[in-house]
Amino acid sequence: xxxxxxxxxxxxxxxxxxxxxxxxxxxxxxxxxxxxxxxxxxxxxxxxxxxxxxxxxxxxxxxxxxxxxxxxxxxxxxxxxxxxxxxxxxxxxxxxxxxxxxxxxxxxxxxxxxxxxxxxxxxxxxxxxxxxxxxxxxxxxxxxxxxxxxxxxxxxxxxxxxxxxxxxxxxxxxxxxxxxxxxxxxxxxxxxxxxxxxxxxxxxxxxxxxxxxxxxxxxxxxxxxxxxxxxxxxxxxxxxxxxxxxxxxxxxxxxxxxxxxxxxxxxxxxxxxxxxxxxxxxxxxxxxxxxxxxxxxxxxxxxxxxxxxxxxxxxxxxxxxxxxxxxxxxxxxxxxxxxxxxxxxxxxxxxxxxxxxxxxxxxxxxxxxxxxxxxxxxxxxxxxxxxxxxxxxxxxxxxxxxxxxxxxxxxxxxxxxxxxxxxxxxxxxxxxxxxxxxxxxxxxxxxxxxxxxxxxxxxxxxxxxxxxxxxxxxxxxxxxxxxxxxxxxxxxxx
Length: 494
Fold this sequence. Notes:
alpha+beta, 5-stranded mixed β-sheet, 21 strands, 16% helix
């Protein structure tokens, strides 16, 4: 293993089982579904870094194929599919195969790996593995030779055509989303490896396929408004024969996280203290790529990646939009909410080993060719499925999120956290509603009103009467109770 690759702290751990994804279609019985996929997913003690340079390794006697069950997999759920393995051309007899030497399989495993690339540099930051054939999991019927016990940790295999289902349990936090540019990329691969012994020599056969894997964002935090709106202000001053003229631009957003493919909204205020009108208000979405050479320092709070100085910074304007029909004449000011459509396929990438991707919203106004003003706001762009979970894996993700919230803040069953589809949007609406209610009726007034009601004479006078009426209704004798056999009507109804 190269010396510049740091060893993760989760080496050798086992990922909790998530069960299977749920499909609305009930498939018919088949040999593929009758064989149960091994449920143990673990982080190997040594990452198979040779996958980076050799994702495929062929052998004339063993052919491998990978079939995944979905186009996208979510953190906290499972990555499922099937491995198609053909030994010696299949189960049809042939003269050439009858003369072939014995073939034995030691291990067949499936791994999900995450690879970060920047130019010629490569780094494997994630690896999850499950074994389909090993000492504890023999080959299925029709693949291993009958009446042939395992010897020297090897299973003797006969010509066959077999499909083996697999399931990899995924942790909640997987890493950065898939990303691709000219020089930088983040990719995830499902790779199957067969360790065999052919003609007395070890042989390794591998096949890999790229998949999309996303980390699920916390629905209680993803789309919530910031405690304090993010506001930026700048101004320019110019001399005029009538005095000093000031042009001031202010922009603000309530939240920093936005969804790829969705519109973005920003409030823009322009105070034009000059004599010329502002006729051009432009919004721009800028992508900045930071490239690093040195490894990030390690710290307990995970802020080491922000303490590095980037060696290169590439900037690119992705989209521009004008605020239509908006002109601010001289000696006036105006406030408006502007909209910018975020293109699909964009994602922010946290700073990793080699690079990071950030987005900035630029607001630019111009009075003349030489007189303009620009401000910037940092934003985070996420994949839509990071909060809009695909229905097939919704139950798995919901169970994982609920377990995460319960372990973070244990509570009674009556107040236990429950995840619902669209929880991220529900949490944002609930926050806005609570904020409006707080501004309408201050919490201090609510507390004071509650205290006054609790101390009122009416509530205090009702307590002993309720106890007296209860004793009369129940038929018990209480010497301190009211001797009047006819209690008031208000208490007889209780």
